Amino acid sequence: MKNTEYIAKVLVSEEQIKARVSEMAAEVNAHYREVGADELIVIGILRGAVVLLVDLIRELDMPLKLDFMAISSYGGGTTSSGNVRVLKDAAEDIRGKHVLIVEDIVDTGNTLQCLLQLLQAREPASLKVCALLDKPARRKVDIKADFSGFDIPDEFVVGYGLDFNSLYRDLPFIGVLKPEYYAK
Ligand code: PRP
What we know:
Blueprint: E1 7-12, H1 14-34, E2 40-46, H2 50-57, E3 64-72, E4 85-88, E5 98-106, H3 110-120, E6 126-134, E7 147-151, E8 157-158, E9 174-177, H4 179-182
Parallel strand pairs: 2-3, 2-5, 5-6, 6-7
Antiparallel strand pairs: 1-9, 3-4, 8-9
């Protein structure tokens, strides 16, 4: 059992996440069945997307290859700088392939916009995005995930992959930290 005394409130419970991830997987399966994809490349964006990624791929029903990219946008604080750097590129050649990007959150949208531009230039057969969370109030660019789990209010959240100073990614729910923990 985890110690969660640092959590002020739970925004999305473990049960809600499980149910929604299954629904999203069903949406993803239906989409790729419809377009006749015989193989999928799933690119998880390190590090936050890893938790969603492992839950999601186990419910996908087509052959898939797993890949990762690391992008830096937040630095150490709680707000996006708009500075996006590729720290680790994908290993797979995606030309002519169906590609699904998996993200934990779309916040300003800067990261996703850069990522989509970068990957689109490699001429995949299709390029879609699955993200657990969407914070529409903070959007700076007109962009949306194709498969989206939950819209959340403009609060800094942790858990299920999301961190503050690299902590709390292991929590099975999405929550808000008590203010004193942001000072740590
Ligand atoms: C977070 C998140 C997205 C991005 C979203 O990553 O995983 O990649 O920020 O923000 P944006 O829409 O404002 O661009 P972060 O840089 O915190 O890295 P992490 O996943 O390793 O925590």
